Amino acid sequence: MKALVKERDEPGLRLMDVPEPQVGPGEVKIRVLRTGICGTDLHIRKFDDWARHTLKPPLIVGHEFSGHVVEVAPDVEDISPGDLVSGEGHLVCGKCRNCMAGRRHLCRNTIGLGVHRDGAFAEYVTLPASNVWVHRVPIHPDVAAIFDPFGNAVHTALSFPLVGEDVLITGAGPIGLMAAAVATHVGARHVVITDVSEERLDLARKLGVTLALNVSTSPITEGMHRLHLREGFDVGLEMSGNPAALRDMIANMTHGGKIAMLGLPAEEFAVDWATVVTSMITIKGVYGREMYETWYNMSVLMEKGLDLSPVITDRFPYHDFDAAFDTAASGRTGKVILDWSPTTTDRSA
User: Which residues are named in the active-site annotation (predicted)?
Assistant: First the structure.
């Protein structure tokens, strides 16, 4: 089969012929249809410090995908060949304190699909059945392929009640855009999103946010003035990992405000903890998805009409992966999808 492989300890990826994976006990084999390019994949392609210390090449990369089940192990129930599925990319141990208590997203021994074991940028992938999410209602494979990052957005956005609240989102990358769509859909009063990319802010406007603010020219206080907000934002969703963004968010929260922080900083930075204390601000770190409450939330949001299609801006056949990765790395687009469907394979043969 064809697969995108990090073959050596060096920048770049290679499209290679590799053996198809075999189904082990408790596993499911999936014919991949679509994959989404994640920031993690960009780090792996670049082979930066994080990738050098994390990966052990050769490795098939990728963890955002959708596909059809083609084979299940004899001991697997409730999943059948032909099912359209997505996958939870965090494989947990099942034995630590958090796993045993049902808090699997907090497992200290998590293994990452496409990071610690062969991933989904391939024609076929295998996963434990417990990590396979079957789509029981109709959904386009493009959207099903981004359920992993959509889960990050939902986990972050639903960390605190949003109904009737004023919400500030810093960072209009794909996950920030999806979080904005969720906040709007579930009943936030005002949803303000900030970035320095006009292309991404335009995408946010298409998703129905109250205000998309370019903070390179307009401070958050200007947005508050335009919306007649006098006491600050009730909920903050920090999606950028940018030190200035978090500091601006803290400075513009109401007393008792709550911040969910998904953006991952590249290095340590100073925070105005005096304001956090005196304004009694709650800051919650968010990573991945709650297994599997977030997945239920995602499916229900889709059933109730949430439209993520504007977030997907670019589609490429898998053999054009270099162009797809360059597009994703530009910082000016929404989600970039690679098409691995059989017709695509035929065209590239």
Answer: 40, 43
